[in-house]
Amino acid sequence: MVCEYNGNLTVAVRSIIVKAWKERWTEEQWSRAMQSYMIYVESSKTFNVLLEQVMISSSPNVHILQYLKHALFSKMATFASAMKSVVGYEDVSQTFCISTLLKFVEELFPHILSSSHPVDLQQIPDSWVQLLTWLYTIISRTLIKLSTDSKYSLEMAARVLKMSSALLDKIHSNEISRAYVALSLAPSDNSPSNRSQKLEASTNEISRLLSTPTYQQLSEELKTAISSCLKHDFNPNYPVGPPYIVDFTRQNLNVCVNVLITMEAYLYRVNDLQLLADKLIALETLQGLPRSVLYCEILRSSFLGLLDNDVIPEDIKWSSFIFLKIPQLFQKMVATSKKDSEDEQSELYQGLKLLLDSQSLFVSVDYKCKCSSSLQSLLNELVRYSLLSEASSKDIIFRRQKDWNASSCNTIIQSLTNEALFLIQKAEPTATTILKSLDITKNQDLLLNVMTQMMSGKSFELISSAAGAIGKLQNFVMKLIIVNESSKTATGETGKNSQTRAALFDISFLMLCHIVQFFGIEIISSCPEGSNSFFFQWATRCLPDKHDQFKLSSLQMNSDPFKVEFVLSQLTGPEFKTSLVKWNEMCCNSPQAIQESLVLWEYNIIDDELMRQILDSAKGTMCCLMVVIATWLCSLYNVSGEDRQQRCCKMLAQLLQPRNPSDSVVNFSERNQLAKEFVYYVADLTLPPSALSNIANMLQQKQQLNGNTTLPNHQPPFGKRFLLQQTQPQQYSHTIFTLKEKILACHELPKLFSQTLNSAYRKNSIGVRDLLHLKEIYRVAGSQWFITQMVKDITKLDKPEDVERLVCLYHSLCHLDMKSLTVNLIDKVIPNIMTSSCHLKSLMDPWGTGIAKLCTLNVATLYKMATRKVGVTDGDSSGSNDKKRPWNDSTSDDNMETPSKIKKEAASQDVNNKNYSSNAGAGFNALSLTDDFLFSDQREITPMNDSPPSSSTSPSSSFLDDLSDSLACMFLMFQPCVTGTLICPRTGFALAFIKESLKLDRDCAQFILHNLPSSMVPQLMRYLNSDITPHHIFTMVKRDSPSWKYTISRALHNYSHYKQQQLQL
Length: 1065
Prior knowledge:
Elements: H1 9-23, H2 27-35, H3 43-54, H4 62-73, H5 79-86, H6 95-113, H7 118-148, H8 154-173, H9 175-185, H10 195-209, H11 213-216, H12 220-230, H13 250-266, H14 273-287, H15 291-307, H16 315-335, H17 341-355, H18 359-369, H19 374-384, H20 390-404, H21 410-414, H22 423-437, H23 444-455, H24 459-469, H25 473-486, H26 495-519, H27 522-525, H28 534-542, H29 561-572, H30 583-602, H31 608-620, H32 623-637, H33 642-656, H34 668-686, H35 689-705, H36 720-726, H37 739-744, H38 749-763, H39 768-781, H40 783-794, H41 800-813, H42 818-835, H43 847-867, H44 901-912, H45 957-979, H46 985-998, H47 1002-1009, H48 1016-1024, H49 1030-1036, H50 1044-1064
GO molecular function, one term: transcription coregulator activity
GO cellular component, one term: mediator complex
Organism: Helobdella robusta
């Protein structure tokens, strides 16, 4: 049909064209003839020769041009090779040819976007940049030709300029072509792209030509078109779209902030406020909140917490947080903002105006606190910290009084003059003054006077709370440790000096006990003098550990027989001597002395009366001895038989029995009260409910004999006893109250968990009672059970808006232990659901979307806190020690998860091989419900990092790497669901997870989605083309792989292909 190929492509193509012209071939005939040459040469060369034949004269050959189009559409040549050939023609003197090429490119525009040739996917991005450069070059050369050649037609030049500028606008307005350009301009292998430099040079040349007289001859419409082309931004850094706001309503926002504020005010009272500030800023970023709304919710949550004291009257905590810590918190939030101080003051002012909408809240707060204006006191503090101007403060007060005067409670509130709530404000300067006065080098009598003044009433609690709020508690503790260490022993002292020294040791010891009780022992260990002090060594050896378990080490204290004999002589003698006594040795040997007395009592060598005298003597002068002995008795109870347990209860009841104060002992009543409160605290942590009830009955009987029927309030609120009594513990058949039996007593934990969360869900805020319930449940059950129960509760709701509200609440509660709960959710719960055919229903909407949202928000929060170097809340601290544990305290030696009592007991069972009751083998099933929901894998969690980070302020980069590995494993599990042909609930959950990730800000979305397998990204376009934009594709692909540009190009092609299919439908 045609001549054989002789090696000259131009001659061969020309001969075919001549033959086709003569015989009037159809496009199909011409295509079959041309295909015989495709085995010899590349398609790009063929297209280049054809284009030369089209442009061989001053007017293009339209018939050959049709052959050329057919070659492209029949895939004889690629679009990339076509663009490469087109941009090689730059002769602007041939205006008809240039116009034809511009029209040709415009007709090919939609086909180039959906090109599916493998070669095109690699070359198309560069072809778009070459096309842009060519268009700018055509415009610049046309303007030059117009100014230098008088014969050059202005009409034809205007036509070329108009078509070129229109094509540039079309490329820029199309999101896919713009994405291809950005992909090509992006540097690869850490080397800048020179294409952007060429593109910039072309635009600069046009900008220079705009000032020439020839340019002024053009029409205004054309001038505008050319100028707009120069403003197109094809920056290599792909522009980020509008921020994606998590679909949380204003109502749901309240619970997020409310939980964080309540945790900070009650659980983590001595934290650096920068941690809370960064958490709130992370929440602000994730939800796209205005700063004024965030200020309003912080204040509203604080005042709501102040009202939630019907069961736990601890106003001092909230008042110290509101009036001392809130201004500091706002100050740290302002410091992280890029706005100037006036703008920040304006946002705080707007937030306060929003707060004024809650008039009933202020009325309730003022009535409860018996003050005329709690808001006025807060505003004064904000003005003092330069967070609010005087004029703004007066305006807020004016607005408040305008509505308040119309309230029916106005007259009642104005008559109340009790200002107990604001004592904490007065305690702040007092705490600073006392810190300067606590100097052991000064006169001891003056020092004792200062310390006794702190003991009166609630002064010490106010001062310690104020010191914690202003960040000076550590300094305060250091001063007390120095006083305690200096008062242990002395030489050559008189009787009065010895009594002063004894009082200083006793008071400082009790004050440190109080600080340990409310702030945690870590505040002492963090002091330079703390770790080597006597009190710290005694506390770490004898006090319950961070899981509220007694320590056997407290029963193995080394004692000196001669010193024990001296202690016995002190306790049984007619006078308690203080001269030259080493009080640290007295504390260390007192338990052994009491043990010897207990043995004699058991063998009836001494009677009950003498034993009471010994205990009364122990608590009569030095209350620290009462604390030491009571702590030892609580440990002894847990390893003793029934008879000895009964005697331990009697001894504890005797120590707690009120005693008439001695005139010779300074501040005996206040010291005794502090000691008893600490004994109640230790007993509540270590003793079973049966022992506590026994002690309470003994105290009541003794008081009835004395004519007093009032039982002292020895039950600390919402401790372990409260939880176990609520679940109606069973009667145990043996005497040792083991950890196993304590856990089995909590068989109704799921019910209690659901009841607590339902209460918070209905109120849309978390109360202190609910929060402490959840903290205790988490400590008992562990993180895997806790997060599993959250997922189970999500599947109980039906409406999407209800699921979203619950997810918001659960995300906030995950701050109890964000790291461990998130890791368990990714590594345990989600794989269990995905691999279990019984629970596929929970992956369907709205539950699957809710679980995905909870997971993505938790991961984003961890990432935000890590990148901002924020300490992550990694579980609660020991007992009711309201201090956040350091990051590396959350991991055990073999397990990254916070050790639950269940798993700790199981480990203990393996080591000790003890025989328990018939229920001892129940393990986790003792806490599960009737079904085995998500408990298909109860193995211990493998530690994510072999060497836990030593920093206590921020999660290390190694943790983020391990978290990325966990996400990568989860995405590998998603891949068969997305790339397969079968669509199931697993597919819907995988897509929901990716959609929720894309709703986060760019950094968080990249951290999550960069773990996607590269082959999975193009496949996702089949499902997500209506939910994403091309800039999301850039977010999904990590740029450290050698083929990342090809992956994005392939994904863009699939996106365009499925988008066109959707439009056709």
